[in-house]
Amino acid sequence: MRYGYWMPVFGGWLRNVDDENMAATWEYNKRLAQRSEQIGYDLSLVAELNLNDIKGEQAPSLDAWSTAAALTAVTSRLELMVAVRPTFHNPALLAKQAANIDHIGGGQRLSLNVVSSWWKDEATKYGVQFEQHDDRYARTAEWLQVVDGVWKQDHFSFQGQYYKIVDNVLQPKPRTQPRPTIYAGGESEAAKNLIARLCDAYVMHGDPPSRIAEKIADMRRRREAYGLPPLIFGVAAYTIVRNTEAEARAELARITDVQQSKAGYHNYQQWLAGTQLEQRVSLEDYSVSNRGLRSGLIGTPQQVIDRIAAFESAGVNLLLLQCSPQYEEMERFAEEVIRKMR
Question: Where are the extended beta strands (E) located within 170-304?
Fold first, then answer.
């Protein structure tokens, strides 16, 4: 199992807690990244939103790509999985940026998390075209073909509905070969078929191991139909590790005290309207992002270790973790869980 975590570029993950003692600053994120690779974490996902959907639109959030480039330069081992939304980035230009960061990190440390845009208000405020669900995935399919093409060959040309590339030359090519890993998630048919055909890894919202096993089996069948190598599988999870189960449950109750008047609640409603999910989402799920509580990494160290073992048996290769306050809780998780499992 590889252990990843969300970089707290939004200043926290709890929609019902105002101050999590983890500011959305370069200094905090740098400190966290440098410490995380020392204590056993393998990867960090740097999310991309220009507005803060956790703490509210008026709250600060860090830019994903400049933050990732800087973090790559001040770390030595950590993989930076940087989120990218095709509607916000020209594919050939983004491929150039990514190749450069890949060289900064020495290779094998830069990967992409391709995300379909869901937030109409953000697109409007930043002057970006907002497209309906299936149109976004049609664009993403072309976007991925361009990125892959310019990474792998010079004098690359492409003519599609959304993009036209003529005789592109991109040098230097990425150091990571055959290409930096491309992660993506989604629960619609359009998303799953696209990922099986054009990506390298499938990342899932939180769910119990039994449900995750069903999803993995489905994606393996789709992947095999294209005759491609196996996918990597990742799952989102929010972690609460305590000495007793009662202590863990008390913390869970604290963070899921839903207050619908909070600044991020309207943004959450837009996310629900702009996505196609397999399941209804509860107000408890609203408390933390990506259905992280459903993964069940909550309890004593041994309970969490047993749950991770169940995810491994289901076929999961990567856990993408959130916790709060992040620096302190990641130290606890590394000491009580990662070290014992390794």
Answer: 182-184, 201-204, 232-238, 240-241, 298-299
| DSSP secondary structure, 29-86, as one string | HHHHHHHHHHTT--EEEE---SS-TTT-TTS----HHHHHHHHHHH-SS-EEEEEE-G
Question: Each residue of 3-58: pLDDT tens digit?
Answer: 999 999 999 999 888 889 999 999 999 999 999 999 999 999 999 999 998 998 99
Instruction: Name the residue with higher pLDDT: 195 or 282.
Output: 195
Mean pLDDT computed over every residue of the chain: 92
Query: Rounded to two decimals, what is the model's pTM?
Result: 0.91
In angstroms, what CA-CA distances link 33 with 4, 46, 123, 199, 296? 11, 11, 29, 26, 25
Say if CB 209 and CB 307 are below 8 A apart: yes
Give the class (CATH, top level) of 2-341: alpha beta
Q: Residue holding tokens 């933390």?
A: 288
- The domain ranges of the chain are 2-341
Closest C-alpha to 42, from 326, 307, 320: 320
CA angle (137, 42, 318) in 5-degree steps: 50
